Amino acid sequence: MDEKARALAAAKSAAGFQAADMVEDGMVIGLGTGSTVYYMIERLSARVREGLHVTGVPTSFQTAMRAREYAIPLTTLDDHPIIDMAIDGADEVDPHLNLIKGRGAAMTREKCVAAAAFQFIVVVDEAKVVSRFAAPVPVEILPFAVTPAMAQLRGLGCRPVIREGVKKDGPVITDNGNFIVDCTFPSIADPAGLEKAMAEIPGVVESGLFCGYANKITVIVGNEKGIKKIT
Ligand code: 5RP
User: Fold this and answer.
1) Residues marked as catalytic
2) Could you name the active-site residues (predicted)?
3) What is the pTM of this model?
4) Each residue of 158-190: pLDDT tens digit?
5) CA-to-CA distance for 149 and 197, rounded, in angstroms?
6) Which of 79, 131, 90 minimizes the C-alpha distance to 114?
7) Where does ligand 1 bind, in terms of residues with CB under 6 Å?
């Protein structure tokens, strides 16, 4: 591992471990998706082995597999429509604690779980805290409607691209059986307005813009030296 990768891993693990330490006995926890959350799962698993009782609602098949591997008991939103705390990563966090999520293509279930939670803990490395969003906004779209939906997304001012796998051998398919379209905007002046406009397009299942959660978010920002919290 080179120095940069080592520093990034240290930042992610610092944030993930801190989030796991905020979990209290008996809680039902939303388990997000992504490399930072997987550090949290590692630490949570150690706490479960020491006697902590928790149950997790996974936000993806990948996370469910990881949680099973780490012996964290799982449940569903059917059994727990309201949960204590969701812990998840993000791709960018703006000064109003709006988020862009979905590099891992899991943002639809992630948003359902975040919405069901009393507290939303977001774990990131410091490079993801930005003054203005610059990352593409992922949008999950029904394959049936992808062409007209992309035309409407273009009308919102972006360049939409269907996400393909690393081997470029076809579209990425989400856990819900849909496509991801990554939308690059020259700039995003009104993230909440954009989230709403995207949600109104027929065929759009969900976007990776998470606005309006600021009252329940704690962002844990990790770096090589430790963490800081933003609320
Ligand atoms: C998945 C997500 C992830 O939480 C986000 O992409 C951050 O991932 P990582 O911690 O690996 O950087 O939104 O849909």
Assistant:
1) 110
2) 110 (proton acceptor)
3) 0.96
4) 999 999 998 888 999 999 999 999 999 999 999
5) 12
6) 90
7) 32-36, 88-91, 101-107, 110
